[in-house]
Amino acid sequence: MDITVNILLTIATAATPLLIAAIGELVVERSGVLNLGVEGMMIMGAVGGFGAGYLTGSPWIGLLAAVAMGAVFSLLFAVMTLSLATNQVATGLSLTLLGLGLSGMMGTSFVGQPGERLPNLDIPGLTSIPVIGRLLFGQDPIFYISIALTAAVMWFLFKTRTGLTLRSIGDSHTSAHALGIKVIRYRYLAVIFGGACAGLAGGHLSLVYTPQWVENMAAGRGWIALALVVFASWRPWRVLAGAYIFGAVWIGQLHAQAFGIPVPSQLLSSLPYLATVVVLVLISRNKRLTMMNTPASLGQPFVPDR
Amino acid sequence: MKKLLIALMTTTAAMSLAVTAEAADKFKACWVYTGPIGDFGYSYQHDQGRLEVEKALGDKVETAYLENVSEGPDADRAFERLAREGCKLIFGTSFGFMDPEVKVAKKFPKVMFEHATGYKTGDNLGIYNARFYEGRYVLGQIAAKESKAGVAGYIVSFPIPEVVMGINSFMLGAQSINPNFKAKIVWVNSWFDPGKEADAAKALFDQGADIIVQHTDSTAALQVAEERGLHGFGQSSDMIKFAPKAQLTSLTDDWGPYYISRVQAALDGTWKPGNVWLGIKDGAVKLAPFTNMPDDVKAMAEATTKKIADGWNPFTGPIAKQDGTPWLKDGEVADDGTLLGMNFYVKGVDDKLPQ
């Protein structure tokens, strides 16, 4: 039983940063903006979170710093693409490159230093319940934030008026603009929210997952998050499913190897990608529904006529 | 798409991060790393070597490096760019740079090249390597003494000779103490992804291993060992700060003396393509202080280290291959060529080698 719990906990840790970054990007894309800078914002969050935690000795300050770092960094993207109407794909890619380089430079003095880890939740009486205790009440704080965030985004996008407005901007910014909606303002807020989420995901890496700073430690997780959003056809619960399928198959293949199942390890290593794509393609087979969920003006720059 | 983007991004990042320098008349020595110099592992140690060169010969030499260069054909451009920028001596520090370096070395016959851990040489291309397997034999012995379960978890990157050699040496060491010792092997197919390494360590511990060994670069696995109150070995750098209670020792590399001697030779005009394989006795392979173990185990580890430094090779027969067919006769020592191309397991390894 213990091993099952351990496996589930490991899966949750692996899935959490993907989920948070993808949920943030989902909101950005729903507003019609494609930000390919997730990896860059994530790594900036990781270095900011680690640095603040290391310098102040408080991982909680680190957590806040990670979120702030991601948000501030995304502002750069917002100014470029929204105010100056630059190409979103190119700007997003450069954001990633800039983030990778800048974080490496900022983190030079943190290399080789052990950092602060965010403590796991520990509620007397509840966490010690066998099996479900540790799963429900004994995980790291960011895990709970990730679940709450997914629920909040679902509610916001589909149950609130502001959410409806945001989606309408993503579908047609010209119509939204004609109706008097402040397109650029909405998009600014969405991009900053996405940046904050990516930063938080990065903070998870350097404060929970592997409490250390090393360059390039996001190791492509931002790109996986981006892919999850598309494959999940812009639906929050599918992003959740996708992140956990990815985590589960990834951890599962490690156990298969440790157990000695004679399948080539290269194949096993690629399984998480394959499995996630296959599952998400299967659940998005309904073409009409997918069309409905795809933000129609995704990636198009918008210059309001004055 | 993802892979393509990452490749694009890392190479561009690498290109943009090149450190170029001012004075044009100084001798220029350059390095190419596969990881970031901030990995606190393999590439970090090579860069420490570069810094030692600057310290020792700084008034005569300027250095430059490219980091995050992906292995394979894409590395061509990195080497070519350095050669065009006036680097006179170029060190490629990773196995996967072998073919690109051979190609670029032919194109620039006046530039001196050195390649680490490979086996192809040329008129202006030398090779150098470190006998990490020597240290891994000692790790194996410590693991067999310290493990209560008799099972180690072994995290590995890619099935290249270097890694296979390490697994074999580790198992020979372990089984010299406990013939029933087992290692569970997990391939993460990456040199550097802290998250993956941590996940692999967790999976191995969950399956009953109580000591972790790695042939990957980050401190993540040791940190998991520390959290779980178990033990493990560091890699490339001394990682004791990350796992004060968990690290038994760390298999570290010290490239400084070698780099200084080679750059000096190039300055003197005596550089010739070499083929050196440095070990414990040359100080290129070092074991960090033995910690978190009883005195008798420590004494044993020190004795074995000394024995190897005095010239004993862990690959000394009788050794059989995994399927039981004989490989080395009693007293026979494996030749370097076989070791450098090692693509088989020795008896006692409980894993199928990925092809």
From TrEMBL, chain A:
Pfam families referenced in this protein's UniProt entry, alphabetically: BPD_transp_2 (PF02653)
Chief location category: membrane
Cellular localization per UniProt: Cell membrane
InterPro entries per UniProt: ABC_transp_permease
Keywords assigned: Cell membrane, Membrane, Transmembrane, Transmembrane helix
GO MF terms, alphabetically ordered: transmembrane transporter activity
Transmembrane segments: 6-28, 33-54, 60-82, 89-111, 141-158, 188-210, 216-234, 241-261, 267-283
GO cellular component: plasma membrane
The name this protein goes by in its record: ABC transporter permease
Lineage, highest ranks first: Bacteria, Pseudomonadati, Pseudomonadota, Alphaproteobacteria, Hyphomicrobiales
Automatic annotation (TrEMBL), chain B:
Domain ABC transporter substrate-binding protein PnrA-like: 29-308
Leader peptide range in chain numbering: 1-23
Coiled-coil positions: none
GO cellular component: plasma membrane
Keywords per UniProt: Signal
PANTHER family, per the entry: ABC TRANSPORTER SUBSTRATE-BINDING PROTEIN (PTHR43208:SF1)
Name listed for the protein in its UniProt record: BMP family ABC transporter substrate-binding protein
